[in-house]
Design goal:
- 2 copies of one chain form a homodimer.
- By secondary structure, chain A is of the alpha/beta class.
- The first copy, chain A, contains 9 helices and 9 strands.
- Helices cover 45% and strands 18% of the residues of chain A.
- In chain A, α2 crosses α3.
- The longest helix of chain A has 19 residues.
- The model of chain A has no long low-confidence stretch (mean pLDDT 90).
- The interface between A and B is large, with 61 and 61 residues.
Chain lengths: 207, 207
């Protein structure tokens, strides 16, 4: 398959949300114009995004809502359960552990890890907090698909090295750090300050 | 100025980080190739991104690190202090309130708002939690530039309507909701589940 840009994947996630909203409201078809309007993009972009994954919809009839939603769930890998662990049982870890949207999408948080003895053995929003010392051993046993990284910036690369060595292939990073990993490891970084910078840019460069 | 895509702005934020890392290490020039390598993009993309904002660097000599960093801070609107309030004093609100990267970038969190009497009057990571009833009055007085929205999804649009009516022009949204606002209001949504979907996509569509 052709290399798909991150921005395309984000739009596919957004389209799926609009389609699910349509499903909830009992609507059975949607045009690329409607999808585009909801997503703040153009119908040409919608058709191009979907064209990467085969042929959808009928000219003049639009897309079948349940069919396209099902296909997008497949494309996004949401048909299976993904096993997730959180490394770093601080405030962001807790916010993520309680986030209900994850389970709904098949992301099952198995455990959180920390090096703070006051946290180890306790629960973080119902999720067990384990000693980070046993991270590699647990990864061998539990085979998590995704590690969510919420440790301080200066500890992040070390954790990446450890989990990558233990076989993890996907990392969602909240630490303010540039991380390095082999090319076969997918890393996504959520940088809160960068999001705010997008707004300061918008406020500064107003028409 | 030409309309700049969100993805371009994100890359500018990333370039600034690499340049600051270079500054820390005492390096004075950088080539578009080096910037591109650090950002996982191409040197043509770097030159194109920067070309929106005028002429930088000298052919064969690369960019001056402090000059380009300074110019990017200007472009991103980081030369001034931005006044921020958080609406929703829950776990995500707390995680953001304690996030040190904000102040470093000139984002000054003035207050948090909540409707829970147990939270009102207390502090959230040192930031006062106020009654959401006084939100409009405080906005008139304190003139925040940016509202960070961390309320439940079904309360989000109501808060957006209120703060927009009170004059706020930029919103960073963490609520799992599609929000509507006038075109002159900038809204950025951070959707945790969508970030994980980017990873499930990557894991599903591996070469």
């Amino acid at each position: 398959m052709k290399r798909i840009a991150d921005s395309t994947v984000r739009r596919l996630s957004a389209y799926l949300r609009f389609l699910e909203d349509f499903e909830t409201r009992g609507l059975s078809t949607i045009s690329s114009e409607e999808l585009a309007n909801r997503g703040g993009t153009t119908s040409a972009q919608v058709r191009k995004d979907l064209s990467f994954f085969g042929s959808f919809g009928k000219r003049g009839l639009g897309y079948s809502v349940p069919e396209l939603a099902g296909r997008l769930r497949e494309i996004l890998g949401l048909g299976k359960e993904w096993r997730v662990v959180i490394v770093g049982a601080g405030k962001i870890g807790a916010a993520l552990a309680q986030y209900r949207g994850f389970r709904h999408r098949g992301f099952n948080i198995l455990a959180a890890y920390d090096n703070n003895p006051d946290k180890i053995g306790r629960k973080l929003e119902g999720i067990p907090v384990r000693d980070i010392e046993q991270l590699e051993r647990d990864i061998q046993r539990d085979k998590p698909d995704i590690v969510v990284l919420t440790v301080p910036g200066d500890e992040a690369q070390d954790v990446v090295d450890r989990v990558v060595k233990a076989g993890v292939k996907a990392i969602l990073n909240f630490a303010p750090a540039q991380l390095h990993a082999p090319v076969d490891v997918a890393i996504k970084t959520v940088n809160m300050a960068m999001e705010l910078e997008g707004l300061s840019f918008a406020l500064t460069n107003r028409e």
